[in-house]
Predict the 3D structure of the following.
Amino acid sequence: MSTERLVKWSKEAKEFFEKAKDNSIVLDLVISFGCASQTGEGFEELVNTINSKEIKRKVKKVVITDTSYLYRHIIPYFSGYSDKNIPTEWVLKNKSAIEKLKVNTELKSWVSGLESGGVKD
């Protein structure tokens, strides 16, 4: 199911984007497989918002960190996501929305942070 809806920003978020200079924001999104608002239509709403004229011009880059690997403790087959070449269920479900992003985008795995010491598991 596809949507054209946009995210409803808080007052603080709205002010942040309004005050930001063009091409100045690196938006770090830490995605949780178990969070319903971060997948499917909820994620697509965020993509639509990022692609909107007033937000897109402010965003330099979107970095999406997929935390699916963290779920290996409760969903054993998620331990297979230690191989960064295997797309996670989240990536597969949201692939078309990710591809719609009209800004520079980097998709990272939680595993990358573990390997670099950048995150604690």
